[in-house]
Each structure stands twice: as C-alpha cells, then as structure tokens.
Amino acid sequence: QAKLAGKNCFRYYSRAMDHAVERRLHLEQELRGAWERNELRLVYQPIFRTRDRMLCGAEVLLRWDHPVLGAIPPSLFIDVAEQSGLIQVLGPKVLRAACEQAKRWPRNAIGEELFISVNVSPKQLRNGNLLQEVESSLLGSGLAASRLHLELTETAVIGDEMLAVSLLEKLHRAGVRVWLDDFGTGFSGLSHLRQVPVDGVKIDRSFVADMERDADDLALTTAIIAMAHALGITVVAEGVEQEAQFELLSQRGCDLVQGYWLARPLDAPGLVSLLEQGSMAALR
Ligand code: C2E
Ligand code: MG
Ligand code: MG
Ligand code: MG
C-alpha cells in the first residue's frame, strides 16, 4: 500500500516537475529571437537626488511582451536567460541600446547629463567579455564613460572576489562606475565594502519596505549609509513607495532614491518629457 502511494506520489511530483521544466524550456525557445522579433523593449526608471529632488539618472529595465503569453515578468525571464546562457547574447544588446538611448537624452533642468544604470548578470560578469562589451558600447554610442553605471549584485561580486576585484579595477580604468545592487541581502555586506572597489551601493527594496515598521531594518539602513559614506561610496535606495520612506532616507543622508513614489519605469519619450517638465520629483 505504502509502496503504491509512494509510486503515485512520485508520479505526481514528476508530472508537476515536467510541467515546470517544459514551461521553462518553452520560454527559453520563445526568448531566443525575441529581440529580433521586437518583443523586448527597454524602460527607464528615473533616479533622483534627495538633496534637490533633481532627476539625475535612470536604471534601464528589460520588458518582454510576448504576442501570446503577454507580459512576462523580468524575475522569470531574466532567470531563464541566465540559466540558459541567453543572457550572454541579450546583455550586450541591452548595454549597447541603453548607451545609445542615454546619448540622446537632453540635460536636466540644471544642465547636468544623466547617467544610465545597466544591470549586469553574474554570468556576464564571469564570461570574460564584459570589459570589451562596455568599451565597444561606449565607442559605438559615443556616450561618455562616466555616464555609464553598471549594477552588479552583491552576491555575484562576493562569490568570486579575486576575479571581481581585478575586473572592477579594469572597469574603473575604463571610466565607468560600478554599483552593488540589492545591497544588504547577501549579509556579507559591510565588511566586504572595504575590499571591493565600488562607487555605490543600492540598498535592497526589502529594507526600504520595512524601514518604518522594523527597527532592525531602519538601523541597518542607517548603518549602511554611514558606513558607505565613511568609505566615500554613494548610497541609492530602491523601492521608495511612500513619502515617509523618502523622508527617513533623506534625513539619514541617502544620496539617491528610486521608486514608485517618485516615478515608475518609463519608455524613452516618457523620460524625455519628465526632463522637459523640469526634472523634479513631484512635491505632493
Ligand atoms: P533590480 O535591478 O533590483 O531592479 C529594480 C526592480 O524593482 C525593478 O523590477 C523595478 O521595476 C522594481 N521597482 C522599482 N521601484 C519600485 C517600487 O517602488 N516598488 C516595487 N515594489 N518595485 C519597484 P523589474 O523591472 O521587475 O526587474 C526585476 C529584476 O530583473 C531587476 O531587479 C534586475 O535584477 C532584473 N533585470 C531587469 N532588467 C534587466 C536587464 O536588462 N539585465 C539584467 N541582467 N537583469 C535585469
Ligand atoms: Mg538593478
Ligand atoms: Mg535592486
Ligand atoms: Mg532586486
């Protein structure tokens, strides 16, 4: 009896697993060539300075509108792209397109050129081509290197510190800035900041979300800001959804903020019209 149940159980799980595997395989096949079919597009989420609430840069985020399946969340397809190695093809295309886009943006209301922040996956970090891809994107687009920021996840960098440090040094020599994304989630954080040459950290939105309710998250956020500043590192908070969060962060000296309270990810014309409106975060 038990054996039979076990067998059924196995069959049940294996069928459920088949579905998940099939679904991923299907997505992978569909993702191949999606760029060429124009199903992928870039959106830009504005990043504001707390001090004067001025729009000073934007993060590029990839979107996939599948003709049948509809909008597929990045959390799903980026993972598929990462696991299948497709990210090694997509990553450089995003980088190049983002640089070309940023090159065309007008200056903000106080005459500054915006930076463009591009997510780099752990696979791209490891395949040995990143420096060359960055250099050819800059050359091809004519964008000044200092306007390009690369977002690497804390865990990818900490995972292979030797490789990361030498690569980050080369990227710095090329003139680009490097930020650690989703900072604080890896728990390796503060002590590693001394060893890894980064220009900024992006405090993960899970900390920002709970800051008002959770004293530990507030304390950690405060500590990250103080520590980063002591090391001369810029601090960005992502996922700012409420004014109260914005206030807490700016009181603590957080340099830059990004989140739905300030602005949603926009298409290129949307970003340009925000710049033309005066590039200030809405005062509500
Ligand atoms: P991320 O780099 O941490 O990007 C921030 C994510 O937070 C984005 O999700 C953004 O839309 C979302 N977000 C921004 N403000 C708020 C807010 O106030 N509240 C909430 N709840 N969410 C907010 P998205 O676009 O779904 O992207 C998810 C992740 O997918 C990104 O996380 C990034 O790791 C990855 N990703 C997106 N585009 C690319 C890409 O071109 N290349 C690579 N390698 N990864 C990408
Ligand atoms: Mg990011
Ligand atoms: Mg992040
Ligand atoms: Mg994240």
UniProtKB/TrEMBL annotation:
Its main location: membrane. Keywords: Cell membrane, Membrane, Transmembrane, Transmembrane helix. It comes from the Bacteria. Residues 24-279 form the EAL domain. It is found in: Cell membrane. One of its GO terms (biological process) is signal transduction. GO terms for cellular component: plasma membrane. This is DeoR faimly transcriptional regulator. The chain holds residues 432 to 715 of 715 of the full protein.
